[in-house]
Design brief:
globular; 3 helices; 2 strands; XkdW-like_sf; mainly alpha; about 55% helix
């Protein structure tokens, strides 16, 4: 997976080496610096490995669907790209929901252990 490509697919306005830095110390690439901001200039959460993989696959699929081998004559190419973006968004939201459910379970367990109702 190309982390830089995944991040740029998720956040097209992000500037490599300024908003984020991907580093590989021989044990695989990772995000060494994260300062990506949204339209309101708030720092967005660093994406999880699952989110990066989803974004990378979507970016690769979008590149394939935009390849010269049929894209100009394919009236559905824009729809395919929108569909790919929606699928990526859905997958990212599912990962976020899964993470939130884990956090919620941990909080509930802590509350139960401390007899807090």
């Amino acid at each position: 997976m190309n982390i830089k490509k995944a991040i740029l697919h998720m956040y097209p306005e992000a500037k490599p080496d300024q908003d984020f830095i991907v580093f590989d110390d021989g044990e695989g690439p990772y995000i060494a610096k994260w300062d990506v901001r949204d339209a309101q200039h708030q720092i967005v959460p660093k994406p999880s490995k699952e989110q990066l993989e989803m974004a990378y696959q979507t970016a690769v699929n979008a590149e394939k669907s935009n390849s010269p081998a049929g894209s100009p004559d394919d009236p559905l190419s824009g729809v395919k790209q929108q569909n790919a973006m929606l699928l990526m968004t859905l997958a990212l939201k599912e990962v976020e929901l899964k993470d939130l459910k884990k956090q919620n379970a941990g909080i509930l367990l802590t509350l139960a252990k401390n007899n807090i109702r």
